[in-house]
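thread: overnight batch results

M.L. [08:02]
morning all. the overnight job finished for the chain we discussed friday. pasting input first so we're all looking at the same thing
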Amino acid sequence: MKRILSFGGGLQTTALAILVAQGKLQVDEVVFADTGCEKPETYWYMENYIKPLFEEVRIPFTIVKSEVKKEVGGLYQYYWQRRDIPSIIRRECTDHFKIRPMNKYNGKDDICLIIGFSLDEAHRAEHNRHKNPEFPLIEKQLDAKACRCLISDYGLPVPLKSSCYICQFQPVIEWNWLKNNHPELFQKALDLENRYHERKPEMRDNSGLLRGTPLWRMREGLQPEMFQSGEYSCWSGHCGH
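M.L. [08:03]
and the structure it wrote out:
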């Protein structure tokens, strides 16, 4: 049975990558489903630390992308062309840009999918939809704090937790981080929301990217000093990391 590590680009799957490098976890391949909307730090970390790590242990690292109307491009373009925004309820982004590309790549092969749920996320494993999943972090009783220690002890910086920069699951603190650190991406999110409101003007004041509420209200809002501490992440974990 082929063992595939589903790499999400964040804390937990980076910890799994280190376990692989240490010979404590056996995998045959690593697969990353790229939405095209990860934060720049995630792509940089992957190129400079993760890919070289797997090259050193001679394990292939494969990137898969959605084939939903190839001419559309990535996740942002998908919603831009539809004059729409990601939905917490529909979750088309996860389905079309994460789950389907992974399933298509894996095909009908008999595989074991290695998933990066940590001990503090054990409840997520109960709702798993994969045929032969494995949750090494849960089995090894490693929570998020232990993952950070594992990464630091290995000599790598702790990565930013992964999530798309237009994800509706982001809390206010993460949107504010994006606004302060990547104003161009925050503006792209605003542009996408505005395009959606042009199509549905009746939704302008009660629907948007900020957990279902309008993101445009933050345009002149929250100052940098208001949120200098705390983590920024896709807290729900729906997109995987």
